[in-house]
Amino acid sequence: MGKYCLLLSVILCCVSCIVTEQKTDSEINFTREDFPVSVSLSNPDTLTINDALNPLDFYLVRGSMVLIENADDSQRYKAGLYQLKTGKLIREFAPKGEGPNEFVSCQLDVRSNLSSVFYADDFMQNKYWECNLDSLIQEGGYLMDYFIYSREVIRLCPLQKT
User: What is the pTM assigned to this prediction?
Assistant: First the structure.
């Protein structure tokens, strides 16, 4: 009787370990050949970023403006917002310094080019700023709010507010 129980348990164990391939209707398969290597635009707009702006990085926002991280340490501001077509400066922001509303470093984090909200990370002071594009465009002051995070944090990922 013990031999039969042992044999039955070995058979059940072997049968339960067999993996069967199951396909569902929602499964989509694709290969590299499904994506073209290059796409030609019929009438593309060009964007010229000259040396005077000296961008470390830049982001196209709302299809008509460019957010630029300034790489030039001699400038008073770490970032700026420019018109795409004319290259005209709309507003400089993120003033350089070590004060409570100043930046030692600035790394922009744009999650959507259609949203009004973007982020600026001053990783040298461990400050993460929430910025509002609409307030940068308006005359007068602009709104930015920040929180200080732990030096042990490597990278922040903001969650969308619902």
Answer: 0.64
Q: Are 39 and 33 in contact (CB under 8 A)?
A: no
CA nearest neighbour of 102 among 90, 116, 92: 92
Question: Token pair of 32, please?
Answer: 């590299």
User: What are the CB-based long-range contacts (under 8 Å, 24+) for 24-30?
Assistant: none
Q: Are 89 and 76 in contact (CB under 8 A)?
A: no
131: which residues sit within 8 A by CB, 6+ positions away? 93, 117, 118, 119, 120, 142, 143, 144
CA 83 to chain centre: 21
DSSP code at position 119: E
- The number of beta carbons lying within 10 Å of the beta carbon of residue 131 is 24
Residue 134 token pair: 């609409």
Question: 21-55 pLDDT, tens per residue?
Answer: 555 566 777 776 777 666 666 666 665 655 556 67
Q: Would you say the C-alpha torsion 67, 72, 78, 80 has a positive or negative sign?
A: negative
